[in-house]
Specification:
546 residues
Length: 546
């Protein structure tokens, strides 16, 4: 009777040779004739456990496994999860791994150590290109440190650790001083990783590091020692940096000369951010800066200073407005996204200093070509604070503007008109309507005289805006007269308008079933008959409804 082991070997044999092991026709082993590097590349598409099983085929495939450079040990997925297939002492069971018994990672390193000990010329073949470890149960510091130390010994180039531990883990010196390490990603579910007390060790290491990702890392800095850490002298080759949920981080200065991409997320304790990177191209800052009192009674002053002459993409979302802001020399800025600004709630008194800080922040976007405002409160802020609207600098290079707009909110019209006036060279306008879903399908006529009168009063001040506007795209489900007042105004005064598109069947903010019901053929026909009768300032304006 055929056993499970023989069945598994037979499947692997057919996978490699294309014939049954006991078949009558001769087999031709074409895959084994390929170079090791090519076979390694093919095997990267398979789980590490499956790659290890190929070592049962022959000595040739055993050698392939012993020198496989990309190792992925995911103890959160099915191949390593405990099940009926694994015994109590199985090398793939979580209990065996976390109790310190023989585990897959130790077995792999032991095999590679044997290769090095038997032949000095084979040392390079035992090198590890990438090592990825994922755990869901707590792992001890000594065990994790052993994995890191042995990986560095095998000249690991990419090290990705996502672990859970109840102990504090100081950055291992072996990682800091590694000359082969290019990519380092550290994530702890319990904020376990910490920088060493003596930061001079870190400043003298990481000479070859290109990418660094830190998540849930403790960065408590009461004496401002971290200010000089992320500098060009400490990370001379780093081009990508990501920091997420760094506990205790209050003051951050980034001055890496080779840095091209920087992402900072969920650092709400942050008080100051200074970025001076001559090669930075992408910057994302999300959910940072705690909201402090405007009166200064807490003694905390927050500020932002960004100087990046080659910056092309900037994302700024869910951040509190700081006490002072400075964005310098962003002449290469192609695309910018601004989300909700914390600290400007309804019926909230905002100091003049904070309004000036926001004005200075927006002045840094003067050269942007594509500007997007998400589902935030920016339009309400412009409408509520005349001081800010009057000092809004024009976006002279702006060609594409995208806005999420609740047209039923009358308080946004003033801010919307202010943005239009500040965009004299705008070519494409994208409006995404946000409305509450209603069950009634009947076209509703409501009292929107004030809305129409407001827009007509702005026509004279928007002459430059209409002189260049050529494309308007509007996404939404149009259910009332108020929702078409703005498009009709744009069509009536847009002398250079070539295209106006209404997208009423697909909108990412609504349930698909509701959209289909709202955008029935009958509803589209009613909407189309109304739109086609609107007056147009441009004879070339083409209206499309889809």
């Amino acid at each position: 009777m055929e056993t499970r082991s023989s069945t598994r070997k037979g499947k692997l044999w057919r996978f490699i040779y294309g014939e049954d092991k006991n078949g009558s026709s001769p087999t031709i082993d074409r895959i084994s004739e390929l170079p090791d590097a090519l076979i390694h590349h093919i095997l990267t598409l398979l789980p590490t456990k499956t790659v290890a099983q190929t070592s049962l085929l022959s000595k040739r495939w055993r050698s392939i496994w012993y020198t496989f450079p990309d190792l992925d040990f995911d103890f959160t997925s099915d191949p390593f999860s405990p099940s009926k297939r694994f015994t109590k002492n199985s090398i793939y069971s979580r209990k065996a791994y976390y109790d310190g018994l023989t585990d897959p990672i130790s077995q792999v390193f032991n095999l590679r150590d044997k290769i090095i000990s038997t032949s000095s010329t084979a040392a390079n073949s035992a090198d590890i290109r990438s090592l990825r470890v994922r755990t869901t149960n707590s792992i001890s510091f000594s065990r994790l440190n052993d994995v890191i130390r042995r990986a560095v010994r095998h000249n690991v180039q990419q090290l990705d650790l996502d672990v859970i531990t109840d102990e504090h883990i100081i950055f291992p010196r072996s990682v800091i001083l590694s000359e082969s390490l290019r990519v380092l990603s550290l994530k702890s579910r319990c904020s376990a990783f910490r920088f060493p007390p003596d930061l001079s060790v870190m400043k003298s290491g990481f000479r070859s590091l290109v990418s660094l990702s830190l998540s849930n890392v403790v960065l408590i800095d009461n004496d401002h020692r971290l200010l000089d850490l992320f500098s060009h002298s400490s990370f001379p080759m780093m081009s990508k940096l990501s920091m997420d949920c760094c506990l205790g981080l209050k003051h951050l200065r980034i001055g890496c000369g080779a840095l091209e991409e920087f992402e900072l997320k969920c650092c709400i304790a942050l008080q100051s951010l200074e970025i001076c990177c001559p090669k930075l191209q992408t910057l994302k800052v999300q959910t940072c800066f705690e909201e402090y009192n405007d009166d200064g009674d807490d003694g905390i002053v927050s500020w932002v200073n960004i100087e990046a002459p080659k910056l092309r993409t900037l994302v700024w979302e869910e951040n509190a407005v700081t006490d002072s802001s400075s964005l310098v020399d962003l002449r290469k800025l192609e695309e910018a996204t601004i989300g909700t600004l914390i600290g400007f709630g309804y019926h909230e008194n905002v100091s003049l200093a904070k309004l000036q800080s926001l004005s200075d922040f927006l002045a840094g976007f003067a050269y942007v070509r594509c500007l997007k405002f998400g589902e935030g409160n920016f339009l309400e802020i412009l409408s509520d604070h005349l001081y800010l609207g009057e000092r809004l600098n024009p976006f002279e290079n702006l060609r594409t503007l995208e806005l999420h707009l609740d047209v039923k909110n009358d308080t946004v019209y003033g801010g919307l008109a202010c943005i239009f006036r500040s965009s004299p060279m705008l070519h494409t306008l994208i409006l995404k309507y946000i409305n509450k879903i209603e069950r009634k399908r009947k076209w509703k006529s409501d009292d929107s005289f004030d809305c129409e009168e407001f827009w007509e009063s702005q026509a004279e001040t928007l002459k430059l805006f209409f002189h260049h506007l050529q494309i308007v795209r509007i996404h939404g489900v149009f259910k009332s007269e108020k929702e078409v007042r703005l498009p009709r105004f744009l069509l009536r005064h847009g002398k250079a308008l070539h295209e106006m598109t209404f997208c009423i069947t697909q909108h990412p903010f609504y349930n698909r079933n509701i959209i289909l019901a709202q955008a029935s053929p009958r509803r589209q026909n009613i909407f189309r008959s109304r739109v086609m009768g609107w007056p147009r300032a441009s004879s070339n304006a083409n209206i499309t409804i889809r």
